[in-house]
Amino acid sequence: MRLRPAARLLLLGPDERLLLFRFAHKDSASADRSFWATPGGAVDDGETFEQAAIRELWEETGLCVASVGSEIAQRQFVLELIGGERVMADERFFLVRTGYHAVSSGAWTELEREVMAEYRWWSRAELARPTEQVFPEDILDMLATAAS
Fold it and tell me: Nudix hydrolase domain: which residues (predicted)?
């Protein structure tokens, strides 16, 4: 099974709301479900996790930063990609705080335009009782650990 390293971002706005994207896979084995997840994606060849986080943040939100700091969490799990390939995901999480920011989709790939249906800034109360699937499932624990 192939290892797929990825950088994910916990992007907090000035009101401590967390940015999540709703992913809706229309043409895959996951076509019957959608879920909310953090911005981020695969680490490209030759990139560090930190470099990938900076790139993904810009590509998916339009926010340009010089640094994302140190990783605050890591998780590994089996992930089924669009197309059915199963990989061992190795995700590293970075916390970034921002002022008001309007998300830009200007640098989204064709695939992102197909599967990223919407975005929303979530309060911690909403994250504690989501009405839809949110990944990672321990996102509140990650935020609490980062705050300490």
Answer: 1-147
Q: Round to whole Å and give the CA distance between 29 and 64.
A: 34
Burial class for 17, CB neighbours closer than 10 Å (0-12, 13-18, 19+): middle
Q: Where are the domains of the chain?
A: 3-147
CATH top class, domain 3-147: alpha beta
Long-range (24+ apart) CB contacts under 8 A made by 128-137 are 130/36, 132/22, 132/34, 132/35, 132/36, 133/33, 133/34, 133/35, 133/36, 134/20, 134/35, 134/36, 134/37, 135/35, 135/36, 135/37, 135/38, 136/8, 136/37, 136/38, 136/75, 136/91, 136/93
Give me the residue label for tokens 């560090």.
Answer: 48
Contacts of 16 (CB under 8 A, 6+ apart): 123, 124
> Which tokens is 36 given?
């909310």
Strand partners, 7: 41, 92
Q: How far apart are CA 73 and CA 105, in angstroms?
A: 26
